[in-house]
Amino acid sequence: MKSFRYERASSLASACASATEPTAKFIAGGTNLLDLMKLEIEAPTHLVDIGRLPLAEIEETAEGGLRIGARVTNSALAADMRVRRRYPLLSQAILSGASTQLRNKATTGGNLLQRTRCPYFYDTTKPCNKRMPGSGCAALQGLNRMNAVIGVSNDCIAAHGSDMAVAMAALDARVETVAADGATRTIAIDALYSPPGNTPHIETVLARGELIKSVVLPPPPPGRQLYRKVRDRASFAFALVAVAVIVAREDDRVRAARVAFGGISYKPWRSAEAEAALIGATVTRASFDAAGRAGLRNARGYGYNDFKIPLARRTLRATLADATGVI
Amino acid sequence: MHNENVALTVNGRRHALDLDPRVTLLDALREHLGLTGTKKGCDQGQCGACTVIVNGQRINSCLTLAVMHADDEITTIEGLEEDGDLHPMQAAFVRHDGLQCGYCTPGQICSAVALLAEHKAGWPSHATADVASAPILTDVEIAERMSGNICRCSAYANIVSAIRDVAEGGRR
Asked: Is ipTM > 0.95 here?
């Protein structure tokens, strides 16, 4: 690990001011950052520890939702009874990721900003445009079984690893930030992530020194919430494909639907196409199949990950069937 | 770059240390405090051998810096016994033969002790069908909740028995 100067931030303002240095990084849980620092994939010269700032509360909002402090741990969020009752999708998604030890440290803000687990991002002997801009993408022709199939580019096909973010995308979460000059802004979770294009090293729209303060969940939408994750082993593994659905039926028709996929793109992939295909459709497996086809229409495989496209369609069909009680 | 003064409270004792900020909590415990019960396995948060309990919660001590833990209460495997008697979870691992080589065992035991507290607090897991319900600690629940601790000797069945025994108020 490269040397760095350690600073325990005493206030939000001082944290943001310190982190405007180009080689500074915030650290909260550290479960992803320290792993990458050991490999020298991340090499900050200044580490700003926000671990004692007050951002660890979950509170009710006036509109009937919840505001989740950026430092709320994944464990605390998944175990919160308000979340379990009103946003079970979010608890399910969080609990499907990592291990308890990691969830006890991992924070809400850090989870959103975790780096990809693409094996070539981790392998410093291989080219990677995300790790070393301009060096190329070894995953395109490589062992890309875990990589993305939609929304990515010929410069980077890395997938985002979060489960929590997939549920938050389906729940229309908003990210609240504060910048070094004290300015605050609210960003829809879908707009937080920058498409890889030809700049895959730029992953979010956040400015240097801009800190995620909280995540706001609007009131829960109508319908049954369900998260399903498909992976190589039963626990403690990243998703091959994950699906978050919120679906309401009225008699034999879908009245409202939200669909987000995990494991297939550079961000939690909310699918307007799948949702449009579902609304007003009959509650049948055929409709669910059609929604999956609509949602994955623009997907393409890169060889080893071709299977993700039919897997995502079938996982969506199965999850919608479970959520609506279709046999 | 300079060292940081940090006071770590481990198993109820306070230790003043002068550390390079790069030192992980795991390395501080083993190399600076001589508490070698906590093991280094993968050093990347995947195996759970380094599990310790910080402020009542289990964490991977390899993925956190020692300097981040001033003012925290840290419990390692060395701190579980009471007046020379094994902690009930340690005794249950012996009784149920919940180990073979023993390398993962300190992490397994710290993890299992925290697991029971989490269950008592009503935390759900991925194995809980209805996350809003109070989960029942079945073997499937125990296995899911222990998935952050890998046992290369594959003593899993006996580890689950040991934990179930203590959960049911088993013998000391």
From this structure: yes
